[in-house]
Amino acid sequence: MVKVRFLGHAAFEIEGEGKRILIDPFLTGNPNAAAKPEDFDKVDLILVTHAHGDHVGDAVKIAQKTGAKIVAMYDIANYLVENNKGITTIGMNYGPTEVEGVKIIQVPAWHSSSDGKYSIGNACGYIIELEGKKIYHAGDTYVFKDMELFAELYGIDLALLPIGGHFTMGPKEAAKAVELLKPKYVIPMHYGTFPPIARDPEEFKELVGDKAEVIILKPGEVFEL
Fold first, then answer.
1. Gap between the Cα atoms of 179 and 131, Å rounded
2. How far is the C-alpha of 209 from the C-alpha of 175, rounded, in Å?
3. Taking the CB of residue 140, how many other CB atoms lie within 10 A of it?
4. Which residues of the chain have pLDDT under 50?
5. What are the structural domains, with CATH classification, of the chain?
């Protein structure tokens, strides 16, 4: 069984096969965060989708404490390891790899990526396989037709999709992404944290209809896959 805990915004904790993975651990400064960086004693991998502060978040702090490896786009991985002591990064690019026994596929996302001043690498999403289940974290992105390839090549059991608009897909676009991805389950994310991305997840659920089962989690809640 794979446990997926929503930590608020686009941050998730995923556990399976004895591994603990964090994705985009934006906790400090996140008004809806369900955890603090110091809450984590054992983390194996931290996946970062792009260089914006609300996605890199506390990745470095948690990695320094736990020894977790940070997986990111090659340019972002180099940037992080050059500017922070005591961390190990694994830089990759779009495509498959295996880290700490976990199969990971880095896939494109349509979004910018910077430290607030300079562009760093490209934005991405991840497809993670644990216990035979495929989990797709879209990162920050707009909907795009190539999402069909993710379904065709890998088969998605659970999709974690942004619905906030303004910076990413809104409910309408995310519902179209569900149609392209064909997941069994979908969890909306990246909404309600700040005023520009205030959205009602029930609107998304209604738009998805019977295309997938929409699981609306409050920060801290867990979905078992």
1. 25
2. 9
3. 26
4. none
5. 3-224 (3.60.15.10)
